[in-house]
Amino acid sequence: MVHSEQSVTHGPGTALGVDGCTDAVEVGRGGFGVVYRAWQPDFARWVAVKVLAADWHGPSRARFERELRMLGRLSDHPHIVTLHQAGRTAAGNPYLLMAYEEGGSLGDRLRGGAAGDWREAVAGGIAVAGALETAHRAGVLHRDVKPENILISGYGEPKLADFGQARPRSARPTGADGRVTASVLHAAPEVLRGEPPSVPADVYALASTVLHWIRGAPPFAPADGESVESLLCRIAVDPVPDLRPLGVPDGVCAALERALAKDPARRPATAAAFAEELRAAQVATGLPVSPFVLGSPGGDPAGPWPPHPAGEAAPLSLSDRRRAALALSATVTRRPSRVRRHTLTRSLGLLVALATALAAGGSRALPTPAPVELPAQVPFGELELNAESPEQVVAVGNRADRPVRLTGLTLTGPSRSELRIVADGCTTRPLAPGDRCAVRLVAVPRAAGPIRASLELTVDGRRLATPVVGTGRPRSASRDDAPPGPCYADAYQVGASAYGHAGGLRAISVKQYWSPSCRATMAYVWVWKQYRDNAATGGGTWTVDLGVHADRPTPARQRAVGQPYELWTEPYPSAGRCTTATATVTADRSQVATTATTEPWCDR
């Protein structure tokens, strides 16, 4: 299921019938159901509510119950989406209530061919590998790892989601009709041939996702007009795309190429082994080693974990591992709790990582910290569409013992066109030790959904970034005092406002509003106070003409004479059409006209 608020078709305030949830907005839709973002006033938080849309007694019930069990066992992992509760809506539809990850999905970020930084992709792949290894050790195959099923938290952390395709490792691989359910673009070749899914198949899908993250496209993206048969043939025989010309280090490319081998036996045997190869590549390039977090395997906590398969990377010898365990055992009780076991597992993992780094780099020093300090994120919060936000200040501090020069200040990411740097106090001069500077940003969201971007700068040859987050929400017609009536009740603004100027000042603004229930468009015009003050001097009046135009000969029009300051048209049935709204204000004394027209908006 693709999670993307770009496809919102509901106005604000959809009622879900889930106790404690309000202000629901659709953010994703698939054959299984619909995902909404909803507000929980009791906890002052946004949540994601996945509602089953199919027949509760059909095959979707089994998938829903399977996802509930899987998430219940695994969602305490920091890189698996958190399940809060489950139940049925007032209408009887089953639902899952999960943590809402405001960063959207990795698929959203990569849509349209956008590529990510290879460093970020490798770190994200290691994090998700920890989640995948945890699921595997619990006896669960995910079977559908892909960018759309990796969500990004507000802190920029990846979270593995959508366990609806997951199966116990002993389950049958296909349905009764033999249909393959995995996603073609990231599925292993043997899965597409109908062979049973496996741990190496999940590893392939994760490596395919990491390569997509770096390249901006899947390893074997379909060409225009290409048949499915041709695409499957290329997946089966073509070599993995070489990322080296893009500046990706050889170690990263080699790890991805091994994990994307056509033969499952030639891939890393586990997600943990794949993660270790990526971590070794980080060491080789002088990057900090990303943590590999392994959670509890679920099920019986007293049961043994599966042994390391043959072929898994072993950075420490058995004697070294025993010495490490003994060194840490002094801080653990004779019968450690589950939390202590989890902590011990993480500590051992960090110790192994340190030993691996020393073995690979000899006497290599630990990477130095960044010379400047950036905030963890730049939060814009909830913003109305097409309205400029207040300025957000990004403070940058020099923590080096010498002056530094900041360069290359830029905005990147899917929402970069909706952001603007309005003041740059950082790249105009060197920054003294301990000194601080500030960059000021504004946002003008153009589409409902998450704002996802990064503010990047370069210092001493290192590129640093801080995430910019927020959410655009539709502007309700009630905010502009819409007249009574069912079509106005659920209407919300579509497209950007248009402005007309008189005497160098903003004189009018025009908006289009769309009613989902009536499938109708309404136009609205506001006459700004500075125009009214000038035109009304000495009792002057003006005339307002407002209309909604489409490919029909009779538009909806409204006219007002005197000193009107706002005007609405009647609802204009516009289903399946593209409409524009035009307003003209004419000063009755001078006959000087001011006009503004919105961009076309299409209901298709």
TrEMBL record:
<keyword id="KW-0723">Serine/threonine-protein kinase</keyword>
<dbReference type="InterPro" id="IPR000719">
    <property type="entry name" value="Prot_kinase_dom"/>
</dbReference>
<keyword id="KW-0808">Transferase</keyword>
<dbReference type="Pfam" id="PF00069">
    <property type="entry name" value="Pkinase"/>
</dbReference>
<dbReference type="InterPro" id="IPR017441">
    <property type="entry name" value="Protein_kinase_ATP_BS"/>
</dbReference>
<dbReference type="GO" id="GO:0005975">
    <property type="term" value="P:carbohydrate metabolic process"/>
</dbReference>
<keyword id="KW-0067">ATP-binding</keyword>
<dbReference type="InterPro" id="IPR008271">
    <property type="entry name" value="Ser/Thr_kinase_AS"/>
</dbReference>
<protein>
    <recommendedName>
        <fullName>non-specific serine/threonine protein kinase</fullName>
        <ecNumber>2.7.11.1</ecNumber>
    </recommendedName>
</protein>
<feature type="region of interest" description="Disordered">
    <location>
        <begin position="294"/>
        <end position="314"/>
    </location>
</feature>
<feature type="binding site">
    <location>
        <position position="50"/>
    </location>
    <ligand>
        <name>ATP</name>
    </ligand>
</feature>
<dbReference type="GO" id="GO:0004674">
    <property type="term" value="F:protein serine/threonine kinase activity"/>
</dbReference>
<dbReference type="InterPro" id="IPR011009">
    <property type="entry name" value="Kinase-like_dom_sf"/>
</dbReference>
<keyword id="KW-0547">Nucleotide-binding</keyword>
<dbReference type="GO" id="GO:0005524">
    <property type="term" value="F:ATP binding"/>
</dbReference>
<keyword id="KW-0418">Kinase</keyword>
<dbReference type="InterPro" id="IPR013783">
    <property type="entry name" value="Ig-like_fold"/>
</dbReference>
<feature type="domain" description="Protein kinase">
    <location>
        <begin position="21"/>
        <end position="293"/>
    </location>
</feature>
